[in-house]
What does this fold into?
Amino acid sequence: MGKELTCHLCSGKAVLKFEEFELDNGKIIIKESPYYKCSECKEEFVTSEQMAELSNQINNNFVFSRPIINAGRSLAITLPSDIVQYYHLKKGEKIKLIPENKKEIRLKIE
It folds into this structure.
């Protein structure tokens, strides 16, 4: 990734910059997120490579791994407190388990 690109709007010089990128009203912050800013028209943009890297960071950093445990005669998983707080979950609420394939299950809050 170069430090300068040609702006796609005005053909001016766009310079590589870094800043915090906030999602969901600041609940998720990605530090040092790269983008380009044109010194002529002030357009701000990211390359497809930068967008792919940001997507990878989000998908890799916001994943919770939980062990399967015994709960009586059933198997169970616990929910991390961050997920509980984010979705405002309460005891007794229902979550629907939707099989996607042999390796994936989607959860839906009812």
About this structure: Residues 4-61 form a domain with the Ubiquitin-like (UB roll) fold (CATH 3.10.20).
